[in-house]
């Protein structure tokens, strides 16, 4: 169904947007931070008023349920409130003296300066929050931004940018560039100063390679295959509710979803029964019909998931539950629970981006941790237990950017929490203070408190100087009081040196 038409940006459009952004960015950065914070606050008000419209656009483009569209709006409102408070604190220059005795004359100021023009490339699965998650901190820190939304969900980004312009962000400071992969590639190669990329591992590797060639930094928020570990003392009904919700939210198209569930032997069968009952009861259909699980974004996603599903069955997995699809349309994949899943199956080795929940029986917690860490991904994870201390101890052993106890998805949904992964899940962080600091580079300004005095260690090098310098090291770092005293005597000699 044709709803809107956009002209894809090519290299000339990207170059024009970059020139405009480059010209406008210094004046944007020069404005007092409180003005940019005020604009962020105005955007928060405008988005709040437009929340139903905005969620409606997300639902229309992406196919998710309305409550899930509103969930994206909520995080973006939270991010505005958080960055409005955090930016003045975190971006303020810090002035201090060094602890080094040799540097006692120096005053050091660390300023946080904007990077310049940022390129933001966003995916389609959370088209509002994943674009805003980088755009908002970049703007408040004084950067200009070129945003390339997914070709599957451009309208969300276009509307968000309209609201930001209405809030007071100059048009030249923030550009939206619709288009497919070619527009994204043109953006990375355009001469922007840093790239924030959210999307698949495969595209992330291309973006990273190009950034490496150009010697510009990039933040990569890539795929995940998050483990959920269900221990013997887990509240099983809560675990089943949470894991079904986390896996099937947004029709299973979530980076931080529980995609590999490791259940200890003692509760495995009971857990499978609980989960299966819930999955069989899920309603599947269009968001407009009030269904819980909508269609996948594109028929190619259904086909890719079917390959992984068929592979699992061919290698011996069993279907424990498969929710009926009411709509006989090509975009749907029935929510499915697989048991008897083993490590050789694609559903464990690859990221599954749709409503399939693979369950693996494990011996104990150690076995679960070992298997959880066997993935090439390391985005997020969840642990289900009543024992908080034990859960936290296990969390420290997991290779992941975040770990939740007895919950799902929230690692990417709390404004204060830095979101990002390890291993093939990417590098860098969004959200939280860490996400703001990705939008600045620190500049050190070192001043001299006694400008009329030269440094003792400048030329000429003489035997006296080397001896005096050694005495200085003894004074500063000597192991005993006697050592340091001897150092002091040597230093006095050095001070008398002409
Ligand atoms: P994708 O990699 O296909 O596309 C992402 C974006 O990159 C799109 O805007 C696309 O047009 C653009 N693009 C495509 N080719 C490009 C190129 N050569 N150079 C530059 N840009 C290019 O990913 P997708 O299918 O849109 O998103 C799903 C993937 O994103 C999943 O793997 C999911 O796990 C991941 N994801 C990760 C996070 C996270 O925060 N870690 C969040 C959401 C989604």
Q: What's the quick description here?
A:
By secondary structure, the chain is an alpha/beta fold.
Structure description:
The chain has 17 helices and 18 strands. The protein is α/β, with parallel strands linked by helices. It has a seven-stranded mixed β-sheet, sandwiched between helices. Strands 5-4-3-6-7-17 form a six-stranded mixed β-sheet, sandwiched between helices. A three-stranded antiparallel β-sheet has the order 1-2-18, with no helix packed on it. Helix 5 links the parallel strand 3 (117-121) and strand 4. Helix 3 crosses helix 4. The model has no long low-confidence stretch (mean pLDDT 96). The structure holds nicotinamide-adenine-dinucleotide. Nicotinamide-adenine-dinucleotide is lined by residues 121-126, 130, 148, 150-151, 180-181, 184-185, 188, 198-200, 203, 206-207, 221-224, 255, 351, 353, 379, 421, 426.
Sequence-ordered SSE layout with sheet pairings:
Layout: H1 11-30, H2 33-49, H3 51-62, H4 66-91, E1 94-96, E2 106-114, E3 117-121, H5 129-140, E4 144-148, H6 154-167, E5 174-176, H7 181-188, E6 194-198, H8 201-214, E7 218-221, E8 226-230, H9 236-248, E9 258-264, H10 265-280, H11 299-314, E10 318-322, E11 336-339, H12 346-349, E12 356-362, H13 365-372, E13 377-378, E14 382-384, H14 388-397, E15 404-405, E16 422-423, E17 426-427, H15 432-437, E18 440-448, H16 463-477, H17 481-496
Parallel strand pairs: 3-4, 3-6, 4-5, 6-7, 8-9, 8-14, 9-12, 11-12, 14-15
Antiparallel strand pairs: 1-2, 2-18, 7-17, 10-11, 13-16
Helix pairs in contact: 2-4, 2-6, 3-4, 3-6, 4-5, 9-10, 16-17
The structure holds nicotinamide-adenine-dinucleotide.
The site of nicotinamide-adenine-dinucleotide has 31 residues, from helix 7 and helix 8.
